Amino acid sequence: MVILSDWLAAQIDKTDAEPVYRQLLSLMQQAILSGRLAPGAKLPSSRTLAGDLGIARNTVLHVYDQLSAEGYVLSTTGSGTYVADTRPDTAAVGPRAPRATEDADAPAAPAAPAAPSSCPRGDMSVRGQRLIDEAGVSARQWGAFMPGVPDVAEFPARTWSRLQSRLWKSASHDLLTYAPGGGYRPLRRALSDYLRVARSVRCSPDQIIITTGIHQSIDLTVRLLADHGDRAWVEEPCYWGARSVLQASGIKLAPIPVDAEGLNPRDPDLRHPPRMALVTPSHQYPLGMVMSLARRRTLLEYARQHKVWIIEDDYDSEFRYGSRPLASLQGLDESDRVIYVGSLGKLLFPGLRIGYMVVPERLAATFRTAVAELYREGQLMQQAVLAEFIMDGYLTSHVRRMRTLYGERRQLLIDAVTRHFGDALPVMGDEAGLHFVLGLPESSDDREIAAAAYDAGVIVRPLASYYLGKQQRKGLLTGYACVPHENIDPAFATLARVIERHAFGKRAA
Amino acid sequence: MVILSDWLAAQIDKTDAEPVYRQLLSLMQQAILSGRLAPGAKLPSSRTLAGDLGIARNTVLHVYDQLSAEGYVLSTTGSGTYVADTRPDTAAVGPRAPRATEDADAPAAPAAPAAPSSCPRGDMSVRGQRLIDEAGVSARQWGAFMPGVPDVAEFPARTWSRLQSRLWKSASHDLLTYAPGGGYRPLRRALSDYLRVARSVRCSPDQIIITTGIHQSIDLTVRLLADHGDRAWVEEPCYWGARSVLQASGIKLAPIPVDAEGLNPRDPDLRHPPRMALVTPSHQYPLGMVMSLARRRTLLEYARQHKVWIIEDDYDSEFRYGSRPLASLQGLDESDRVIYVGSLGKLLFPGLRIGYMVVPERLAATFRTAVAELYREGQLMQQAVLAEFIMDGYLTSHVRRMRTLYGERRQLLIDAVTRHFGDALPVMGDEAGLHFVLGLPESSDDREIAAAAYDAGVIVRPLASYYLGKQQRKGLLTGYACVPHENIDPAFATLARVIERHAFGKRAA
Lengths: 509, 509
Description:
By secondary structure, the first copy, chain A, is α/β, with parallel strands linked by helices. The first copy, chain A, has helices at about 1-10, 20-35, 45-55, 55-70, 90-95, 125-135, 155-170, 175, 185-200, 215-225, 240-250, 265-270, 295-305, 365-375, 380-390, 395-420, 445-455, 485-505; strands at about 75, 80-85, 210, 230-235, 250-260, 260-265, 275-280, 310-315, 340-345, 355-360, 425-430, 435-440, 460, 475-480. In chain A, the strands form 3 sheets. In chain A, strands 3-10-9-8-7-4-5-6 form an 8-stranded mixed beta sheet, with helices on both faces.
């Protein structure tokens, strides 16, 4: 016991920022775990140890209490405190382990150690490794010409904050606890009104499910309606995030080409109906074309006949610069095969993380249960703020204002392209949204150009990242929405220099 | 054309709340989709139609523009507007469809219609149907004696709202857009400090990943570290939500019994190492025992040898009424096999939806990428509010205050149990947390009693819902945290009547 006190005294530093209590506790734990204090050993009395270490007896008593509570020691009233036997049960872990060497006297393992599915593997799962290898998410989320990001500096933060403060003043318990499946009722009502008018979606508030965004909406749909190994059609090219979500749930992707009229399945595709199809009919992501009415009707009819689920991702159709926004595919569907998904992130600010889905009436209760079961949703306070924001008309006026603003920025950027490149580089998919695709010569390497642009301080995304199979076009996704008017020309000048150097072999002047 | 005008005139109701523009657009679309207006038909000029219907010519012009934008009609300058051919491509959808009858003159199908994995099935997937069938989520989330829910009425909403308003005043773009992987840096620093001191977790801010809660933390872990078909040990009984999340990702569950010392794997379990094990060592959910130090060391050693991932769910250990909170399992782990998950929901308010995980250092970058890729996180504004709340000391003082308050409520409820039932009904797992288990006689049906209590206005959850295999004990999860002191006696009187009637066959007086 003298040895223990000496060892402890040598280790404890009373001038350290860490309280003596924590130091002593940690040292005693170490001593027991390492075997320095063997099972069954008796600890010195608290009075003795406190005296030896020159610390308050109460400190030692607290440490002994905590050691006892955590099972390191056993205290018997009257007879003192003993080190508990907490050594791992080597009979349980030792003999069967291939690498177990510490238990040499154990009998030979009576059974094979592992079933095939649980063979020692690497740290990661196969699906986890693929998710990381194919990850499309960008390290930077802001700056010229980040695609898909609205100008959050223009968001009416004051109005939002005012509504928020008012609601928090009367925060009731049902807004602070878990959400009932489906989300805040008044928000669902406000959204169904909005979607009926703005997007020709046919729905009642009951059919609306509030989620944290398009990723969660797709995830929920896939888990409820598709099994591991099922196939899904995705547009080629398509959004990397949707691909990752589908694959992480075990869905096999069948890339379907798009042409000027949108999704264009070929004969072999049609012969093998998938379980689901993920489409962006209003504004193909990333190329920007609109799915034609004939294609829409064909897809719906095919879905009806083959019981294919269609996920309609309607991610930014509010921002259409020429004509009015186009009607949704969901509004044409007579057979309840369409799950419509959208998000408020691109209209307001991405960090909000509120999205919505519209599901067929007969599945509404199922989706409500599942969203609560899988994700335990909450955030009703934010949903309430958003509901007020919509009902007071701020959403509509903000979208209207942004449409004008983004329209101007789009024009400035197109002008800059023309000024630098004439018509050598086509601008594609610029009728709507927050970005367009700047076409590059077939011979260029858009990944390399995007990487060089990134190093020069300009964010663009190469079309290459959106293809699952062979890349059909070269180009850069170029976002203008989050770039202040006056930054567009200088940022594009930088990008143009990179393009000239890499795509046309020109040297910087 | 006269027929069209007449039909339209008969349908349009100028006194309707819906604007004439929308009525006319919708009617024209219907007429085209139904074939009433055949492909190639010429529309009347806008002047003629406006005259026939007695409406403004501009209205008709806008409708024609929108029809043209959506592809219903084709406009040729000078020669008029014609109905486009938007009929579904029956060659694509018809001949191969088993139920296709409208295209009788098509040749016989040249190929089998569907691969086995995409045979017409029901609406739901197998996993979706199971998720719904086994859903544990409650329709009500508030009231005596809802387990697992803190008293949100005691949450310092004013302080929170004040911090929030201050932050929104200077909302910068990087707090409003997508989050970089892992979450808001100052929050991760504050949490790592908190977890080191309060939970003996060993971690740096880099190892902290902010999520929306324990469900998302488990989901992310499973997708990165386990594949479809892998096995996971779960405690028997265990939390329904964790079970649902694991199963929804294709994990097979192996229920492992618990005894007074926590998880107690038997020989056959040990012979087949799982890919992961989900445990609640500080306070077994739902029964409440603490995993002994020997079992902890055995589990860690087993995990090291067989490369088993351990998910430590440390959901409510801050509320421990007798001793200080116990150290985490993660703090004992020398081989980086533990993923530690926790949530702020039970400390503050469940609707907050901010949780955290602590991952081994070598996997931190992987988890940061994956959380951004799979979920596109945001909510940095809320994370910033929470960081301030913690750094200003409000979390610690709130937890301290709640521990006293919940301790009192726990005692009131135990007193009520004793007053009504003496020692006929044991109280289990009451040393910590927000609930205890009220044991019921072996002969009783806890599901039936919970249902009858629900009808009488009292929420309790039957132990039955937490067993995957054969139910070993009967009992009710009874939460006291969210019940004001004065409501405990009357609510328990109601519950006691239900128990007396159902478990002891007594009639109401």
